[in-house]
Hints:
Distance between the termini of chain A: 41 Å
CATH topology of chain A: Four Helix Bundle (Hemerythrin (Met), subunit A)
Number of strands of chain A: 0
Helix content of chain A: over 70%
Number of domains of chain B: 2
Largest interface: A-B, 55 and 50 residues
Radius of gyration of chain B: 22 Å
Shape of chain B: flat
Radius of gyration of chain A: 19 Å
Helix content of chain B: 55-70%
Structural class of chain A: mainly alpha
CATH class of chain A: Mainly Alpha
Oligomer: heterodimer
CATH superfamily of chain A: Cytochrome c oxidase, subunit III, four-helix bundle
Number of strands of chain B: 0
Shape of chain A: elongated
Strand content of chain B: under 5%
Distance between the termini of chain B: 69 Å
Number of domains of chain A: 1
Largest sheet of chain A: none
Amino acid sequence: MDHAAxxxxxxxxxxxxxxERARFGMWLFLASEIMFFAGFIGAYVVLRMANPQLAEAAxxxxxxxxxxxxxxxxxxxxxxxxxxxxxxSKGNRGKCEDMVFITAALGTLFLVxxxxxxxxxxxxxxxxxxxxxxxxxxxxxxxxxxxxLGGIVAMIFLLFYIKHxxxxxxxKVENIALYWHFVDLVWIxxxxxxxxx
Amino acid sequence: xxxxxxxxxLFWYVFFALIVLxxxxxxxxRIPGLGDTAMGLIIGLAVACTKASLVALFFMHLKYxxxxxYPVVIFPLVLVLVIIFGNFPDVAFGEHTTEGVETRSHGSxxxx
Lengths: 197, 112
């Protein structure tokens, strides 16, 4: 959208610039989150290369079908979230609410499946203390799960406020959507390097 | 900025591409003789990077942002590559592997 159209839609240069600053701020936060997960993933790669036999033994315990299902759940939730942003940008608050609710529900489903996966591992005597491989596994997937939970909480708050938003005031929807897509993006890397490769 | 993508069709195309690529990743990892080799690793990571790019460019609308947004994304990614691959000469081939530790302890047995 060119600047003239953006001003026409939002009513002022100030609004357009505020939206842009808000998004830029969110991207800065996501850049720090990239480094947050990079530390864990880097440690995992180093530990795995130093002890490949630990990873080979652990592969038998990896519930990759569950993880593949969870990957599909997060991808669908990313779609519903982007549809929510698209809806509110057109002033369709009802559809936006529905899509945010579905996204939060899918995120909850992800955590429930993850909970079953953890329970199965604990039942087999596998804990973060079991080995450096399992320690880094629980660290990466645990922190990712916490980020998913944070996104769900943010969406619950959003559902209370969407009724006040119109196409000129949906920066919060857009920023929470950016966060949620990032959570999906992290899992796009975690899934293959932990469960498949 | 309102959503620069008026039609939702593009999002559905990206969604189906992500699902297909996920299925491809799972499928190729299960092929004996491919999934557990270096080529399988390269393919898996390449597909993951493609999926991540689709999410970032289209779902996160990075494709439609102004250019000054890009260094915020690219710079951390460069650092990620340094963090992950900077240690490779040591951990993959050097004395910090399990084999390297065993070699050192045999070589210095008289010193302890």
